Amino acid sequence: MLLSLGEVARARRDDLPSSRDLGVCPVDGARLVFNPFDPHTHHCGVCRSMFSGERHHRAWVWRYHLWLSERAIHGALLAALGRSEEEAHRWSMRVLETYAARYRSFPNQDNVLGPTRLFFSTYLESIWLLQLILAAMILCDSVRSISPTLRTALENMIAESSELIASFDEGLSNRQVWNATAVLAAGLFLGDEDRITHGLSGPAGIESLLRNGVGASGRWHEGENYHFFALRGFLFAAELASVLGRDLYEEHARLRSMYTAPLATMLPDLTLAARGDSPYGVSLRQPRFAELWEIGFARTGDQRLADILSQLYDGSEQQNDIGFAEIAEVEQNRPAMGMNRTDLGWKALLWMNRVTPTNHGGETNGQQTVVVEPSGPVVIRTDDGRYVALEGAGTGLGHGHPDRLHLSIFDRGPILMDFGTGSYVDASLHWYRSWLCHNVPETTGGNGRAGWARCTAFDQSGHWQWCRASVEDFVGIGSRADRSVVVGPGYVIDILDVDVPRDVVVDLPLHLLGYDIDTPLSDHPIGLDIDIGYDDVDVRRVVTACSRLSSRIDERGDVFLPARSGEELFVVKAPGPPPLSFGQAVPQPFILRRCAGPGRWVHVFARSPDSVREVSADGVTIVVRTATGTDTLRPSDAGAVIESGGVTVRLAGLRAASRVNAKSVSHMMQTFRCPVLDNVPSSQDIEKMLAAGHVLNGTQYRRSEVDYGGVDRFSAKWCMFAVARRVFWHVDVRKDHICVRPPDASNPRFDNETPDIHSDGMQ
Description:
Layout: H1 5-13, E1 42-43, E2 50-51, H2 54-80, H3 85-102, H4 122-141, H5 148-166, H6 174-190, H7 193-200, H8 206-213, H9 224-243, H10 248-251, H11 253-265, H12 287-300, H13 303-312, H14 346-351, E3 370-371, E4 378-381, E5 387-390, E6 407-410, E7 414-416, H15 428-432, E8 442-443, E9 454-461, E10 464-472, E11 480-487, E12 491-499, E13 505-510, E14 515-516, E15 538-541, E16 548-551, E17 559-560, E18 568-575, E19 587-596, E20 599-606, E21 614-617, E22 622-625, E23 630-636, E24 639-644, E25 647-651, H16 663-668, E26 676-677, H17 683-691, E27 694-696, E28 714-723, E29 726-735
Helix pairs in contact: 2-3, 2-4, 3-4, 3-5, 4-5, 4-6, 5-6, 6-7, 6-9, 9-11, 9-12, 12-13
């Protein structure tokens, strides 16, 4: 079925309304289900309510463009395979003809992330263009081919669209992978060497992204969710490069490693850890993951991929009909589902092996303890299925979250988890990106300060494992924070040592899942003097000592929180893990520990109801009384000494200091000189500094819609200097029209932007 694109074109010409309510259920905030055959009636998959109207229709429009471009590939493949050849060929040709004729009628306006004619972001046009090019390539190689007239029209459209895409360099973003891949595909179709070079080996091309955006372990720097999205773009690029006789898998070991890297940190229930801007609770038991690993196994031969595929096909989950509303390369997270190879898409049909992968019976990455360099996480796994991860990454750039020293624990279900992120167009996004939503230490008033931790120790002996991550200059020069985790047969001990000035207050949230916080609280909410950009939290002071929390899960033991001298305890109620629908999360309480000055916090997580009876900590020794005796633990800078059952276990594994190389930072940011002066300079001296300062012009211009206007229309000079502990900026802007937003103007409510971003200003 091919709907008229005339209506689609007219809809895209209008001003885009608020993106907070485009395709989003007004009842629960969930994304409305996309039905390609009904552009005007939309239902919520959570509350089942039905909605219509122009705003929801416009959200449907861009999804339809992507859906239709992929169906053009389906038609081309069916024609090439001799299935309904004439009808399928004619259908795909009609899609290409319609877009080639109408492309220039789509206006390049009302964009959010770069220039584009059909969408709100350049990367979406990249996916759309790539799929149309692939369809055209298949048709050109088929018996019927395409006419010279259509070929010329397509070349004109592809040239214009790819030029638009190439004009917007997204740096080390996952979106740039798709931009570069689309330009590479355009170069191949047009026979244009410049476009091929730009997309494949240019400064922002595929090879540069592999070198600078992928770590030595094969992890994409923006977290698990964007790792998979970037990898799918790299997959297309590798197949396109093979047309040129290039094997990117052989030339770039990091591309091969990208397929196996997520196995090292996945949770025991085959869900992804929600680091950074990743959705929470995403199961790997979905066709899109199986298809990716099928192709990865075919291209790399890595047996670990065959092992994970055999798990996905093991029949342990009920098989469901996924329907026909999948949208090209737009991730649609579903509950865990059973599947087989026939549920996979056209990419698997083209590129996977003919023989079904089988498990060779060995140990995969998903069963091993691993230290991921350089900044973590350290993932400890035990034979009884426990999972403990200690994070090192700081806020970083782009999709980074304040994960520095974050602790995750999974034992027959989640206990401490990273909640990832919710909807990008809901105010709760600020909550999920705040340090208060993570199990991390932070100074009161801070907001996830930048910086990195590094693994300073890891060792294991028998049934005992331990690791430590450290942050130097935690809140200033000379301060420090160290988080150690000891995993034993019956419990996990979490130890956080902070060495800060006596007047510095440090907070430590503890987001426990499945535990009752049953303790007397203050009658009225109080303020915490913490600004996280999100206000919908309820804070109560704990008025009676709370040193033990009971689990609501029968087979799980208690959590022990020995009191730290001088600390205050609070119970905070805020959104819990976001649902897969990106709708509103259920509020849940969590513990917040607060104390000034240097000291130690301890938590003990009992594995079963009878494994731990009592815990005490005096700042030097931690004593755990179990059902069979008493264990003592003495952590120090040199390691950890454990006495249990008459046996002494010594764990050390100290790791030499290593520099954390945040490539994403070094690649995208420049360093500028900042002279330290005795006094604020005079106006005349500032003018001299400006003359010798830095210039902003078309080189730094980030195009969203129209081309750069030139230095006569828009440019700036700027300089910076410091006096004592203050940093000063001076900026001289040339602009032919200053746009100042009236104070009484309504909030346009685009995503989560502040309204003032629609005025001229500086950040």
